[in-house]
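Recap slide: YCF48-related protein, sequence and predicted structure.
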Amino acid sequence: MKIHRLTVQAAAILAIVSLLLSACSYSNSDQTASSGEVRIVKMTQTASNITADQHVTLQKAAPVIINNPVSNYDIPVIDFVTDNTGFAVKEKYGESLTLIATTDGGKSWTEKKLPGQFVRSLDFIDSNTGWLLIEEGCSLKNGMTACSKLRLLKTQNGGTAWTTQWQASSKENRIHSFTNLRRLSFQDSKNGVMLANGNLYVTSDGGSHFKATAFGLKDFTPLSMSFPKGQTGYVTGNVGKDAGKLAVLKTSNRGRTWQKQLEIKAKESPVSSLGIQFMNENTGWLLTNDTGMMSGEIYRTIDGGKHWKTMSTQRTGRPTPTDIQLADADIGMISLHPGAGPIEGGIWLTMDGGKSFTSVAPNHVTAVNQLQMLSADHIWAAADDMNQSGYLLHSSDGGRTWKQSYPKSVSFGSATPAVKKRIYDALQMEGA
């Protein structure tokens, strides 16, 4: 099929093509783009009976084409336990949550309804056992969302059935647009920690009982945490009621005692943390946030927090960093969300420990909520587009190229023979 330059006549043909594709059926083929490639696609969201057609689009060396229905759901969290087995949660305002899961590396997905209106965290330790932190009883009050209940659920059969492990009145702070969604960290079926309602809770029986941690530091409010292995964990939080200081604390006995490792004083506005992440007991990053300046500093330690080095200063507002992931001491990524815009979000990659970053976000990616680096090569991203329609991306080459894994796309090749012929004839007439 010969492709001609788009003219006024071609535009009319494209409209015909878009209508003809309404007869296309669902296909599970992944969609990638190559230089100068023309794609005719149609997405169907059968669960909500929403469809959205996309016209012929010309892309030049684009790493991925995002194909999504206007469904207005987000995918805030993602968690893979192996290269093939992973989970994510779909969130749509006014509806209950949905768990999506794959056991074949994203080739196919299953969906199961969940309780709750908002997801706060997701953590699986294998293909069967996982925990989910949710909020319920949510409504709009004075233009802001308020929820009455916070609940921790546990599954032991891959999400088919869930039991309540812990619940309390929700005291979550919703002043900020972006909240930390890495609030659960389980090492095994028994031992784990949970960050909820401004406290860090520790369990040694799989979540049946929790004990609030005493940090031994006056007016310390935990903001984010990372428990890389065994009994070792790190927590960062504000010190003082005016958020004038930020501290990093470390435990070597699963929260029984804590030692202060780093303290940062606010400069011209309150200081906070947008995340702390350790890839092992020794190597980790901290990203601070100077609220008034919309900037923050990346700190790195390679000796278990004994020494911290400022690696670089980065923008922390519009877009706002939403997640930090490390593959090793030098390679890591930060996901970005635009918030109110006007700039887009994306994905930053560093190869030098945080000194410099390069954007590796595929085209049309507006907002990235969470990342997971299984290795320096294998990366998953949960993202939203301009319509707040969530999708999952996967890279197997360190972010050089990406494929949309969920939801699946419909390609030109999935059309019936009759529809293919009508499309072909229409394009031939345009070229005559």
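The chain has a mean pLDDT of 80.
The chain has two domains: 8-65+411-431, 74-406.
(End of recap.)
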